[in-house]
């Protein structure tokens, strides 16, 4: 398959051809979550549960995607050619939470 689309930027000075879909891949995604909970009986019918939950326990930076902003990503190289840079975005880092559930 050939290029999908041509984009001219800025003001028809540069012509950029987008490549095939799925031609590049993001880094592998890895995440470990952990949850600890304790449930106790309250009265005859009630239950009280206290929990601690940690998402992305190892605090790994997982790539979410590559952002392209037409105004800020074009850089002219010393040889006169143009280069496009992409900003890598990431998923959330380590995220602890805690809570209480009361069933009655």
Protein topology:
Elements: E1 5-9, E2 14-18, E3 34-42, E4 46-55, E5 63-67, E6 74-76, E7 82-84, E8 87-90, E9 95-103
Antiparallel strand pairs: 1-2, 3-4, 4-9, 5-8, 6-7
On the 0 to 100 scale, the average pLDDT is: 82
Spatial sequence of strands, sheet with the most strands? 3-4-9
Say how many strands there are: 9
**Number of individual domains:** 1
The helix/strand class is: mainly beta
Secondary-structure element order, N to C: EEEEEEEEE
Low-confidence runs (pLDDT<50, min 5 residues)?
A: 1-6
Distance, first to last CA: 62 Å
Shape: rod-shaped
Radius of gyration: 24 Å
Strand content bin: over 45%
Largest sheet: 3 strands, antiparallel
SS element count, helices:
0
Task: Determine the fraction of residues in helical runs and give it as a percent range.
Answer: under 10%
Can you tell me about this structure?
- It is a single chain.
- This protein has 104 residues and is an all-beta fold.
- 0% of the residues lie in helices and 51% in strands.
- A three-stranded antiparallel sheet has the order 3-4-9, with no helix packed on it. A two-stranded antiparallel sheet has the order 1-2.
- Mean pLDDT is 82; it is low at 1-6.
């Amino acid at each position: 398959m050939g290029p999908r689309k041509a984009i001219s930027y800025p003001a028809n000075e540069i012509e950029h051809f987008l490549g095939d879909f799925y031609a590049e891949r993001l880094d592998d995604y890895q995440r470990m979550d952990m949850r600890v909970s304790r449930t106790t009986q309250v009265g005859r019918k009630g239950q009280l549960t206290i929990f601690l939950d940690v998402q992305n326990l190892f605090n790994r930076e997982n790539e979410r995607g590559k952002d392209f902003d037409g105004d800020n990503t074009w850089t002219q190289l010393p040889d006169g050619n143009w280069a496009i840079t992409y900003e890598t975005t990431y998923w959330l880092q380590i995220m602890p939470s805690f809570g209480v559930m009361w069933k009655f």
